[in-house]
Write a structure and sequence with these properties.
mainly alpha, Cyclin A, domain 1, two-stranded antiparallel ribbon, 11 helices, 2 strands, elongated, cyclin, Cyclin, cell cycle, cell division, Cyclin_N
Length: 267
């Protein structure tokens, strides 16, 4: 189902709703058991070097399956989780996990026949609906909508060439996240990005004032991929606006970073 956001962009929303109340349908399952299982599935994903998308798709399969079943026994959770990873790897990985590998990580808890049986049960329970927008998908989409317009605008200015790409990306992130977080994920120190942060601030302000990033509809592109297509906005108007016209070309524009509040884009 596609719905429009308040900015006019469109997005797909899953028709099913998750709820922790599914535990009421499984008297022998405790909340911590789900946590332990998902933690194990993360460990298996790392061992098999699976993509993050694969794990989140497997998690989605597991939760949807459990919400449509009754009285699942705790002894069955591991084979269900392993089978969900098996299915998700077929959907996401160029080289899917092999059945023998799935059985081996179970350390004797289940057999190949068990996995095949549970696989068919999961497929039937989910109505063979294996394509799903996970929480990871929405997080990536929202981050792109918030950050990409600022980056697009920055790249039009020649002074963007004065900064390394990783520094420019980190500086943009720093306007929406605490700098400690940015330093941790980027490996850069505050001193590495301070000048770039000062330069980026007016671009963030201009994007907030002039831009409401939307995802247009592309006839030949699947809706889930729309946010990955490079779009065109009237960036030149923003570039020559009052907020940016004071930035001289071939010179670093300095602003006291500590005096600038964190800004938020409205999307």
């Amino acid at each position: 189902m596609f719905v429009s956001s308040r900015s006019g962009s469109w997005m797909e929303v899953n028709s099913h709703r998750n709820s922790s109340r599914f535990l009421q349908m499984h008297p022998r399952i405790e909340p911590r058991m789900r946590s332990i299982l998902l933690d194990w599935m993360m460990e298996v994903s790392e061992a098999f070097t699976l993509q993050r998308h694969t794990f989140y798709l497997a998690q989605d399969y597991f939760d949807r399956f459990m919400q449509r079943q009754y009285n699942v026994q705790k002894e069955s959770l591991q084979v269900i989780g392993a089978t969900c990873l098996f299915l998700a790897s077929k959907m996401e990985e160029s080289r899917a996990v092999k059945l023998k590998q799935v059985v081996d990580v179970g350390d004797g808890a289940y057999t190949e026949q068990d996995v095949r049986r549970v696989e068919l049960l999961i497929l039937k329970t989910l109505g063979w609906r294996l394509s799903s927008d996970t929480a990871l998908f929405w997080l990536e989409l929202y981050l792109q909508l918030v950050l990409m317009e600022v980056l697009d605008l920055c790249m039009l200015h020649v002074n963007s060439m004065d900064f390394e790409y990783n520094v420019l990306a980190a500086a943009i992130l720093s306007r929406f996240f605490h700098q400690e977080v940015v330093e941790q994920v980027s490996g850069l120190s505050g001193g590495d990005i301070e000048a770039c942060i000062s330069w980026v601030i007016p671009f963030v302000s201009a994007a907030c004032l002039f831009g409401e990033e939307t995802v247009p509809k592309f006839v030949k592109i699947h809706p889930e991929e729309g946010h990955n297509i490079q779009t065109h906005t009237d960036y030149l108007t923003m570039l020559h606006s009052g907020h940016l016209s004071s930035i001289p070309y071939n010179a670093i524009h300095t602003i006291t970073v500590l005096d600038q509040p964190y800004l938020q884009l409205h999307i």
